[in-house]
Amino acid sequence: MNALNIKKGSSSHSAYELRDPNGDLIESHTLAVLVANESGVLARVIGLFSGRGYNIESLTVAEVDHEGHRSRITVVTRGGPAVIAQIKAQLERMVVVHEVHDLTAEGPAVQRELALFKVRGKGETRVEAMQLAEIFRAKVVDSTLESFVFELTGTPEKIDAFADLMRPLGLAEIARTGVAALSRGV
Q1: Helices and strands (H and E) in the chain: how many
Q2: Where in the numbering of this chain does the ACT domain appear (predicted)?
Q3: Which residue among 8, 13, 86, 162 sits deepest, i.e. has the most Cβ atoms within 10 Å of its Cβ?
Q4: What is the DSSP string of 83-126?
């Protein structure tokens, strides 16, 4: 992808909208790709992205059909409509790919991510971290006299918001699973 132009827009999320050189709005898309569960398949799918300069913001993969030997790859990427259409078309041409769904374009979808946060602190900082964790419904999965490990499940935005609040309280490490997503309804 070429350089991006930043233009002021009326987006409710930001004062700026990212646009590609053609003027198309660059958006985040969640793709669900059903693939053969074989050695090297993930490398080939990811190679398609890296070989063409597409960025992957999130990636999860797991077997979803043991008897049929199929795995589901969930990829979050960004691009204008032409780029997303090109990614989908290139994925669909791969022999090991059974299905490609753009969950963002197909309608409402449920997206969740799991994250672990290690927060170091003492005294009031610990108390404040615990209070925020309670508000976010984060679970304490490990505790020492000087740190906590919180587990949080939610949308990527919720994970980001919790991380932003924990940084000044002593956030030391984050581990994120990446997005898991399913379309809503039938």
Answers
A1: 5, 11
A2: 30-105
A3: 162
A4: HHHHHHHHHHTSTTEEEEEEHHHHS-EEEEEEEEEEEE--THHH
- Domain map of the chain by residue range? 5-106, 109-183
Would you say the C-alpha torsion 88, 89, 94, 98 has a positive or negative sign? positive
Quickly tell me which residue has 């049929």 as its tokens: 68
* H or E element in which residue 184 lies: none
Angstrom distance (rounded) from CA 128 to CA 169: 8
Note the pLDDT tens digit of each residue in 68-106: 999 999 999 998 888 999 999 999 999 999 999 999 999
Whether 106 and 82 have beta carbons less than 8 Å apart is answered as no
CA distance 27 to 29: 6
* Tokens matching residue 82: 């032409």
pTM: 0.78
Q: What angle do CA 87, 90, 93 make, to 5 degrees?
A: 150
